[in-house]
Amino acid sequence: MKSLKYVFPALLMAVTLCGCVFHYDPSGNTSAESSNRPAETNKEVTDEELLEKAETARIANPWGETQSLSVAEEWAGLSFTPPADEIELEDGSLIKLTVYRYMEGIIEALYSGEDYELVVRKSDTMQGTELAGDYNSYASETEERMEGLTVHCLGDGETINLAYYDTPDGHFSVSFHNGEKGLTVADLTGIVKSMH
Questions:
Q1: Are 73 and 109 in contact (CB under 8 A)?
Q2: What is the pLDDT, as a whole number, of residue 172?
């Protein structure tokens, strides 16, 4: 069932692309056979026109979305224990779980607050910045020991915007977005402690 979710978008794109290069004539003639028709309806599609149409076509979003952790786990093919449904940060801010997202081999929990967004991910295939999907440059890159794990932390030197680590159970990433502000070591330790 999981592999079928990619079949329909692929078929739709193939049919769309075929429709761009094959001209249908209701009389049953193809555009090559119906040369007695006016030139504007018998026009061949140029490479430029095809390219223009192809640029407007989009690749299907590989992420699924759900409110159910068990549905996300089933589609991702792995188990996941995210942090609590609500997380209180050291500065008193509260962020709440809003949605689970998944694709094969990856599951994430998205948290939102008034001005915050926290994304935690687990994967059995991807790791590090590839798992986090964050390729920004940060002023500081350090390693912290948290809950017996080596956690790679990136941020401004005082707070952390991106962290990733590995366990025997999988690979994890934590991304925190709020302009220039990041998580404290205590905030991140609480998240790492509660997630597996």
A1: no
A2: 97
- Three-state secondary structure of the chain: CHHHHHHHHHHHHHHHHHHHHCCECCCCCECCCCCCCCHHHCCCCCHHHHHHHHHHCCCCCCCEEECCHHHHHHHHCCCCCCCCCEEECCCCCEEEEEEEEEECCEEEEEEECCCCEEEEEEECCCCHHHHHCCCCCCCEEEEEEECCEEEEEEECCCCEEEEEEEECCEEEEEEEECCCCCECHHHHHHHHHHCC
Spell out the residues 6+ positions from residue 25 whose beta carbon is closer than 8 angstroms to its own.
Answer: 31, 33, 34, 37
> Nearest-CA neighbor of 63 among 98, 105, 95?
105
Strands 117-123 and 140-146: unpaired
The predicted-structure confidence for 12-57, as pLDDT tens digits, reads as follows 454 444 444 444 444 454 444 444 444 455 567 777 776 676 666 7
Q: pLDDT grade, residue 8 (50/70/90)?
A: very low
Whole-number pLDDT of residue 58:
73
- 3-17, 33-47, 152-166, range with greatest mean pLDDT: 152-166
Q: Which residue has the tokens 């942090």?
A: 83
Structure tokens, 56: 């407007």
Buried b (16+ CB within 10 A) or exposed e, 129-140: bebbebeeebee
